Amino acid sequence: RWDPAASVVFIPLEPVRQAQSLMPAVASRLGVRDQPGVAAEESVAEALAAAPPTIVLDGAEHLRDAVAGLASKLLTSVDGLRIVVTTRVVLGVPGEVCWTVPPLECPSAAAGVSDIATSDAVRLFIARAHERMPGFASADVAPHAIAELCRRLDGLPLAIELIAGWVGTLSVPEILQDRAVLLETEPSGDGQARGRRLVDVVRKSYDLLEPAQQRLLPELSVFAGTFTVADAMAVTGAAGPATLAPVIRGLVDSSWLVVTPGPEHNRFSMLETLRSYAAARLDDGGTGTLVRGRHATHFAGLAKESEEGMAGPGVGDWTARLGAALADLDVALHWADASGDTDLGLDMSAALWRWWLVSGRLAAGRAWLATFLARAGKRQDEVTGRALCSAAVLAAENGDYAAAVRQGQRALGVFELLGARERMAFAATVVGSAHRYLGDRAAARRSFQAAMDLRESLGDRRGVSVALNNMALLEIDDGDMARARELFEQALVIKRQLGEQRSLAIGLVNLADILIRTGQWDAARRALDEGTELATDVGSPQLIGTLRCNQGNLAAAQRHWAEAAGHYQAAVDAHREAGLHRVVRMAGLTVGVHRG
What's the CA gap between 435 and 431, in Å, rounded? Predict the structure, then answer.
């Protein structure tokens, strides 16, 4: 019974199953009796008016319309009354202010023991596990195992409480392994919230959705990461934003989707626990293959579009865009592999080579290309040639020069057969670079000259700048620094006109190398400073590592050993991030020399 002196009245709504039972339940909690000829709402309003409290209506999602109506009437009738509603569904009443309650904080995979112990999710798990087994303590279990368990439960309090109930029956590693099954298993035993399963709670929430929301939600479960309205339109086949946006808004209001605001596009995501439930509904509906195929085709299109985008002035934007789509790109590649769609897999993996290079994911890129090239066998079509060429680039950048020569020459043969001169020029450049790294300068010069001739015949100014750059590297190898500088400066004129940040930064790195070798240190520093600013905008760990290595060379040339060591260590870290292990070993050796 409500004490009028109390400032807060808590009214649990879970026991109230029907809308018509809401008003009697509130009146009963407040101790308001029925009065003949007086509506219950009026009696409750009269009782509250003397000392308006804060009313907390807990768990209102299954009574949304009834709670919205009651709240509107009481707030209009009683001055000073405040109503707090906990619900998974926004009520939509005038004056409503919504606070999203996020999942509990979970420690990251890299968190230390002290950070794990103080995180909200881990503290809740330990508290509930201790209730289940009084002798349980955090020292009994590897803290990172508990942290991983909480992360995989999305930090959801109910999921953590339910899973902690298995402590004493199973070890934490066993719980971690079987968490999905355990959350759907009814607990047993004395007084343990029998019948509480996470799947039941999620199902109730799903049942409250409108039919259009129930149809859309399983289709959105194919997204592994965040997605935009445009992404959702492509994958679900929706007619347009006017049709799709209201349904997505309803899913946001029902707490099924999380919104991440962005400068141009908001992005949406689902907690993994909810996604798993929705994905099961997709399979039950029999449309899983169709929707997953559309998802893969959509992200294959994004990958293909990125190949040109990553080569232009918008490389920074494309890097961020592909980074946001990373999980979905991986899902699309797995779908192509599992479904046997070799053409889609080849096309997609061939297009992503610049992204894999810039982001340092060389091993992953090479593995996917190897998978789909093995399926292609001895095919000699354009997409196979592109994939071979992309594989050769990544092999060369990964230090596997013999493989780069083999794959590059195969690609060159395919493009010659097809008469694709631009592709031939690119393949010849890759083969020349690999030969140069192997120390065969004569073979490298032949390949670079062939690429130069093809670029000039095509009128490809960007390609000519690349060819000039590569020919200059051979002049350095031959010791002709004056000719190398001349070629680098010719390439830089074209690069500045084209405005491609990454290409311009590479050109500045190469020019700085010549300036350092010839003792022109101030000019070298200016070139490296400009290159570093460009590389930072691009976000390429490989390029940043190369710049830091050259900055180390400049400092070492001036006998600034401590400064040089710092640059070399930064180069090691950046190259390791980029997956360039051969360069890491070289830079690491340089660090040792100068620190000694």
Answer: 6
484's tokens: 């190398």
Residue 137's φ and ψ, nearest 5 degrees, are -145, 155
Residue identified by tokens 């065969």 is: 440
For residues 307 and 258, what is the distance between their CA atoms, to the nearest angstrom?
A: 30
How is residue 265 annotated by DSSP?
A: -
Instruction: With beta carbons less than 8 A apart as the criterion, state whether 321 and 227 touch.
Output: no
Reported as type and span, the H/E element at residue 517 is helix 501-517
The stretch 449-472 carries a mean pLDDT of 94
Nearest to 480 by CA among 523, 430, 517: 517
Which band of pLDDT confidence, cut at 50, 70 and 90, is reported for residue 46? confident
Q: How many CB atoms lie within 10 A of CB 470?
A: 24
Q: How far apart are CA 354 and CA 346, in angstroms?
A: 15
Q: pLDDT tens across 203-232, in order? A: 888 888 999 999 999 999 999 999 999 999
Residues 346 and 372 sit within 8 Å (Cβ to Cβ): yes
Q: Report strand pairing: 267-269 vs 258-260.
A: antiparallel
- pTM of the shown model: 0.72
CA–CA dist 553, 568 (Å, integer): 8
Q: Please tell me the distance from the alpha carbon of residue 582 to that of residue 574, in angstroms, as a whole number.
A: 13
pLDDT of residue 582: 46
User: What token pair was written down for 581?
Assistant: 């292990």
What does the block give as tokens for 230?
């445009």
Residue 542 reports pLDDT greater than 80: no
Name the one residue in this structure whose structure tokens are 């007619």. 239
User: For residues 53 and 40, what is the distance between their CA atoms, to the nearest angstrom?
Assistant: 18
Q: What is the pLDDT of residues 128-156, one digit of tens each?
A: 888 888 877 767 678 888 898 888 888 88
The amino acid at 113: V
Q: Which of 187, 168, 166 lies closest to 178, judged by CA?
A: 166
CA 430 to CA 119: how far, in whole Å? 50
Element (H, E) at 8: strand 8-12
Is the model more confident about 464 or about 109?
464
Question: Do residues 159 and 198 touch, judged by C-beta distance below 8 A?
Answer: yes
Q: Give the pLDDT score at 4.
A: 63
- Amino acid identity at 554: L
Spatial separation of the C-alpha atoms in residues 383 and 302, rounded to whole Å? 16
- The mean of the pLDDT values for the chain is 87
* Nearest Cα to Cα of residue 160 among 191, 195, 132: 132
HEC per residue, 388-442:
HHHHHHHHHHCCCHHHHHHHHHHHHHHHHHHCCHHHHHHHHHHHHHHHHHHCCHH
